[in-house]
């Protein structure tokens, strides 16, 4: 057995067995006697150390090279270990491990490049974290409890309530109006973005609209506070009054419009000043000279780029435009917001890192939001969803109202408001989105095709499977008194709740079903035909579901807004008159 084989016994590396013999001055291979050996080697007599050559007659010292030392370990020329080394002899040079070859320049360059890349990846991650933490610290958040939906979803429509308060906080704002205001809902816009992100509706709610404010809970430093509801009062008192927070405004909007709000964003006067400055100003148009002593706006007719204090004066102007009231101020604000949207989506803004940073800084400092979007990452996700809509398909409109007898407040115009609310509830665009119109037409074909019975011939039993108390009774009253469906009856609550309204009918009642579907605005999917004909005075069964919005309110919503509803698209510039 050679030295290498013997040294491998018991998995012992022979490189660890070379030791100095003090009698001879040579390094010798020492093997553990207990290691198993071949019979030949076991019977062999110990060898006498071979004589040293003259050059080997030197004194052993700590600096002396130790054969096979691990620090020297490297393969020999053939890649293997030294073989046939005899005990008591200096190992041959070929048995020594060679020093590692230095890395090539190419490998060094790759390692250097990889290290730099890794550094920048880490630096970018740290930088992103610091940026997010910076913007997170700017945001103010409010816990609105169960006032919202719990958060928007990417595959559903999104409803965001934008609130502008009349609170005079911030530098230079003390001189505007009531400096002691608790911060009422001075400007309120329900921003609805369609499920497919092709269109959006921005619905302005007049602050002087007389409405009911429901009871709500607010979270304070001292715990939860219950605030009683108020009937027949100004809408703007849904915020600030009696300690109401934006959650109370969200609940009021849901009760008024039937639309559940996902999130809110609230801003004060500073938001207008800082955000317009961040984007370098927004362009507005005046059809006449305006010099308003109340808002402090002083501009000649024509186009102007405004920002800061001048922008704030523009959106506060009302006495010098239109009829001089709040509704005229809403129109000028819609023109301003349309222009701001166009500027924010312009290449001039999107291609400028400094403007984007300033805009993010201004927005996060000026905004107060609900906990659901209280992190910059969540706010970014929401912003990405909203930004998918082309400005030409963003429509600004206002809740239809009529003047109240007091001359200071307004009342809901139900004939126009309910169909408009229904369009938002049913995710129907106010703009000409051709694909959506075609889908709506296709949806009404099939079961709804064919002859119609007269209203007086329709026989139906109404069940309430919705969460609205008394829905069956109010629907029955509406059918009999306003639609002439006299052969109808109220059957009370359905055996179980239903998510969607359904109409079950027999084959020989198809003409009645189509007529009732027309009257109630039922989609084809609501019609459930049976297999057998009705006998005698057997009635169809109408079961109202969770999609029931009120007697006379179409389930599917109208295809277009009622005549006379004010509209303006965000891609069009309108001059204030």
Straight-line distance between termini: 109 Å
What would the principal axes of the Cα set say about the shape? Answer: globular
Q: Helix content range of the residues, please?
A: 25-40%
Based on CA atoms alone, the radius of gyration comes out at: 41 Å
Question: What features would you describe in this structure?
Answer:
With 577 residues, the protein is an alpha/beta fold. It is 29% helix and 20% strand. The protein contains 14 helices and 25 strands. It has an 8-stranded mixed beta sheet with strand order 3-16-11-4-5-6-17-25, sandwiched between helices. Strand 8 and strand 9 form a beta hairpin.
Question: What is the strand and helix layout of this fold?
Answer:
Layout: H1 3-7, E1 18-20, E2 27-29, H2 39-43, H3 105-138, E3 140-142, E4 158-165, E5 185-193, E6 200-205, E7 210-213, E8 216-220, E9 223-227, E10 230-234, H4 246-257, E11 263-267, H5 269-278, E12 282-286, E13 290-292, E14 297-299, E15 302-306, H6 308-316, H7 326-344, H8 347-350, H9 353-366, E16 367-370, H10 376-386, E17 394-398, E18 401-403, E19 410-412, H11 414-425, H12 434-443, E20 459-464, H13 471-482, E21 487-493, E22 502-505, H14 510-520, E23 527-529, E24 540-544, E25 567-569
Parallel strand pairs: 3-16, 4-11, 6-17, 20-21, 20-24, 22-23
Antiparallel strand pairs: 1-2, 4-5, 5-6, 7-10, 8-9, 11-16, 12-15, 13-14, 17-25, 18-19, 22-24
Helix pairs in contact: 5-6, 5-9
